[in-house]
Amino acid sequence: MNDAEAKELPGRPKGTPRCLSSSQTTLQLAVLFEGRERTLRQQALAKLLQASLKQLYGVIGGAVAFDILSYDEMSASARIQVNSRDELKLKTAAAVVSSHQGTPCLIQVRPTLPLS
């Protein structure tokens, strides 16, 4: 798979991350559901973020490539790699999410330590 194809596959499976360059940043996200505990699959998180990006910025502006580097389904928390220039877009898209399949939720962006 070349880099152009990789950009078309946001939220790629854990085994195929791109190399972290100086223009990349990582974000730690956690999905919190109101009321009862609920699990969320990695693919559902990627689709939720993509839909929010598209709603906010349109098809072209919302075409943000990101990789889910690690994901814990039980806590619905993920470590996501994104180009630094798109970091604010992804944070904003995460902040405006208010539900998933009719269940109220929110996505927290947590502080992340740089990779060493």
From TrEMBL:
Quote the Pfam families the UniProt record gives. Pop8 (PF20976)
State the source organism's domain of life.
Answer: Eukaryota
Q: Where is the signal peptide?
A: none
A cellular component term (GO) from this record?
A: endoribonuclease complex
- What keywords does the record list, in alphabetical order? tRNA processing
InterPro entries linked: Pop8-like_dom (IPR049128), Rnp2-like_sf (IPR038085)
- Where is each Ribonucleases P/MRP subunit Pop8-like domain found? 39-93
BP GO annotations: tRNA processing
Q: Where is this region: Disordered?
A: 1-21
Q: Where is the composition biased (Basic and acidic residues)?
A: 1-11
* Keyword Zinc appears in the UniProt entry: no
Q: What is this protein called?
A: Ribonucleases P/MRP subunit Pop8-like domain-containing protein
| Organism whose genome encodes this protein | Apatococcus fuscideae
